[in-house]
Amino acid sequence: MRITLRQLRYLDALAAEGHFGRAADRAAVSQPALSAQIRELEEALGCQLVERAATGARLTPAGHQVVERGRRILAEVEDLETLARAAADPATGSLRLGIIPSIGPYLLPKLLPVLAEAFPALKVGVRETVTAGLVGELQEGSLDLVIASLPLGDPYLVEAPVFSDAFLLATPAAGPLSLGAFDRAADIPTEALLLLEDGHCLRDQTLASCGALDARRLTRAGVTSLATILQLVAAGQGITLLPELFLAATPLDGGRVRLRRFSEPEPHRTIGLAWRRSSPLAPLCERIAGLTAHLKPAADGLGA
């Protein structure tokens, strides 16, 4: 019995969802059909891939290995199909672009018009989610190109840094939190720091910039957007680090927020693009990286 691409896709959906019903919805197939295909895959490979329980499904160690390799196989198949479509001109057809939420709303309004002018026959579809999700979808071939904070650390991906995005200190313009002299990010008191919720790479980068912090003393806000963080700062609820890319695209709240640059070396993140090494769209991705590099946010008026 031979394994099929369908079986690999169904197992990948189950790995992503951890539940047969949700995996079936994701794969647009009935649950019995998905379950049957995965059992056939287990029989073909001669090992158990999934632990089945009333509450859901969990991959076995062998299942994790099969999913990892299966994603690379599926990505290669996607690349083969893309190669056929792009044989005449890689700048025609479609490009599936993934981008993280702390970059998308502030870079895309500049980038998409540039791409439309440079590649008028190219249709760009955009997917916005956190870094881990984008990397997984890029690996499996669901995306062609990702814009995120680098490094991603995957040997199967090409990473192209395009610009450095500095972090600025944002404090209330008045009140006790406006008085602190924080020349370095590490000087910020833990209890005053406002962060995005877990799962956002910007949270991890901010914590890294601030040095050793006692996570138990962090303010728990469950915030998922930089715009909300900015409003909390304006209301005097805390202070934070905000990327220059966001600030260049966002009007400040009526003078209620004060911005300040840190002393050198400034904390920052590296914005870049990533694509699969095997992708037939690699030349197009390289051209897009070059265009993106010119969109670095202007520093005018952003802090002293």
Q: How many separate helices?
A: 10
Distance between the termini: 68 Å
CATH architecture of the largest domain: 3-Layer(aba) Sandwich
Structural class: alpha+beta
Output mean pLDDT. 85
Helix content: 25-40%
What is the count of structural domains? 2
Task: Sum up the overall morphology in one term.
Answer: globular
Main sheet properties: 7 strands, mixed
The CATH first-level class of the largest domain comes to: Alpha Beta
Q: Count of DSSP E strands?
A: 9
Low-confidence spans:
none
What share of the residues does DSSP label as strand, in percent?
A: 15-25%
Instruction: Look up the CATH topology of the largest domain.
Output: D-Maltodextrin-Binding Protein, domain 2
Domain HTH lysR-type: 3-60
Family: Belongs to the LysR transcriptional regulatory family.
GO molecular function: DNA binding; DNA-binding transcription factor activity
Pfam families: HTH_1 (PF00126), LysR_substrate (PF03466)
What does the model show?
The chain is globular, with a radius of gyration of 22 Å. The protein has 304 residues and is α+β, with helices and mostly antiparallel strands. Helix 2 crosses helix 3 and helix 4 packs across helix 6 (131-140). The strands form 2 sheets. Strands 3, 4, 5, 6, 7, 8 and 9 form a 7-stranded mixed sheet that branches. It has 2 domains: 5-82, Arc Repressor Mutant, subunit A; 93-303, D-Maltodextrin-Binding Protein, domain 2 (3-Layer(aba) Sandwich). It is 39% helix and 20% strand. The protein has 10 helices and 9 strands. Residues 3-60 form the HTH lysR-type domain.
